[in-house]
Specification:
single chain, alpha+beta, Alpha-Beta Plaits, SH3 type barrels, 5-stranded antiparallel beta sheet, 4-stranded antiparallel beta sheet
Length: 191
Amino acid sequence: MEEIKNEQKTETEKFIESADKPTEVAEQKPVAPVAVAEETPSSVFTVKTTLGRENVVMDFLTTRIQAQSIPIKAIMHPPELKGYIFVEGKIEEVQQSIQGVPHIRGLINKPVELSKLQQFLVPKVVNIELNIGDIVEILTSPFKGDKARVARVDKTKNEVTLELLEAGVPIPVKVNMEFVKVLEKVGDRKE
């Protein structure tokens, strides 16, 4: 009869009964030290891309890295360097992330020193004071050397909208402020 009662006990009751009994402590042995693999620091590698497709490659890489949980730490494209992006991570992870990506032309396996990238990480401060109506010269192509009048100044984007003087019809052109040379200020004009 007692055996039938033991069989009818629920799992919870069996657990409570076993908890009341003193448990035997297993003999403790010293644990051997576990060999911890040293974390190899990540490096910055240069990836060659098709000219003008740097942002497309960065968008594609960002999507792939997030989808596949690849531990890449950063991706950077300085606008001054056409055809190159920089990827921070271990070489194997960088190779895995760029494999099969359109517009990638290659990977330079030698890491780049951060001191060489420092100039691209610090923002440039442009202290050009432009006012609407100023006459400027454009320093970049396709309008390099052309004279223009300042129509609008956007200091947040560091852009200026210009109207070409030599054009028969005013053509608005947006140019970065650093690519403009002031020829004549509004207040300096002789009327």
